[in-house]
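Service request form, structural biology core

Requester: graduate student, group of Dr. S.
Request type: structure prediction, single chain
Budget code: on file
Notes: please return the result as structure tokens.

Sequence provided:
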Amino acid sequence: MNVIDLMDYLDSYINLLNAGYFITDANREDKYFEVIEASQECEEPAPLKEDATFDEEQKYIEAKRKYDTAQANLSTLEKYLNSYDTLTAIKSKIKFFTDARKKVEDAQTIEDVELQMKIYRSNLKNY
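Core staff response, request fulfilled:
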């Protein structure tokens, strides 16, 4: 397993948790859409005018902060999804090889071992 992929996953997951997005298998799709919608709803504020008032500056700062946060969350979600996909693929491969090994180890006769190896090789070609 690539430690960098795992670190990317954990880092992005923790950042999403910190932003209030608690992603589980049960709510995964809803949370993805929540992050995407939040980024689409938040427009970048227009630049301040030279003669902006203090209140206008405060509103700009708050709007800019919300926009930047929403864009950062979207970027973090993309990083999370990429690392999640990578780890899921690795997990799938490990399961494939572990299952094949277990079946060979559980075989009672040479013929059973040969049959399991034949099945493994066939599955490997299709994998």
